[in-house]
């Protein structure tokens, strides 16, 4: 069997995406409550995400989202990591800026524990990509597109996308807000 460099690199990115999802799932969490959810997009689903990102870019009139959409389009896959919006039910925490979880929920805010857990999960996932030398970038814009696409249950209101790419030079760096390296 002959395997081309491109096929090997794509397969490595996809294997790494699986490992990233596992790392996000096993990352430490506040009080051990697991509220992190991961999704991996390739093929048609990734193309749908790109389309949703173009829609968000037009709606928000943000060039960087359009640039990111083109980066995602040129990536092998995208790892999406989100967190459910479920307060811990604490009466005197206040870390979210509200007196308690009831007030936070009423205001439609996010639990500080959940958002912190998301950050730790994202950090764990990208460290796996780095360990495997797979180019990646954490993108708010891909998360916005994923939410619009409906990739997560309704109680996920915050997520990030991490596209993966292999090549001689990372497509995610050395780029201005209006430029895209193809």
Flag low-confidence runs: none
- Strand fraction: 5-15%
Main β-sheet, spatial strand arrangement: 1-2-4-3
From the N-terminal CA to the C-terminal CA, the straight-line distance is 30 Å
Explain what this protein looks like in three dimensions.
With 182 residues, this protein is an alpha+beta fold. It has six helices and four strands, in the order αβααβααβαβ. The chain has helices spanning 5-26, 43-60, 63-73, 101-107, 112-131, 140-149; strands at 36-41, 77-84, 135-136, 156-165. It has a four-stranded antiparallel β-sheet with strand order 1-2-4-3, sandwiched between helices. α2 packs across α6. It is globular and about 60 Å long. The two termini are 30 Å apart. The mean pLDDT is 92.
Summarize the structure.
The protein is α+β, with helices and mostly antiparallel strands. It has six helices and four strands; from the N terminus they run αβααβααβαβ.
């Amino acid at each position: 069997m002959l395997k081309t460099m491109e096929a090997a690199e794509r397969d490595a990115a996809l294997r790494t995406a699986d490992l990233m999802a596992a790392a996000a799932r096993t990352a430490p969490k506040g009080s051990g409550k697991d509220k992190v959810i991961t999704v991996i997009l390739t093929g048609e689903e990734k193309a749908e995400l790109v389309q949703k990102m173009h829609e968000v870019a037009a709606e928000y009139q943000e060039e960087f989202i359009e640039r990111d959409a083109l980066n995602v389009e040129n990536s092998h896959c995208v790892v999406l990591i989100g967190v459910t919006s479920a307060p811990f039910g604490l009466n005197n925490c206040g870390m979210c800026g509200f007196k308690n979880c009831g007030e936070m929920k009423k205001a439609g805010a996010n639990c500080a524990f959940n958002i912190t857990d998301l950050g730790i999960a994202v950090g764990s996932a990208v460290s796996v990509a780095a360990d495997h030398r797979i180019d990646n970038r954490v993108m708010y814009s891909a998360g916005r597109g994923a939410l619009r696409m409906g990739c997560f249950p309704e109680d996920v209101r915050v997520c990030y996308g991490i596209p993966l790419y292999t090549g001689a030079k990372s497509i995610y760096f050395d780029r201005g807000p209006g430029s895209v390296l193809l």
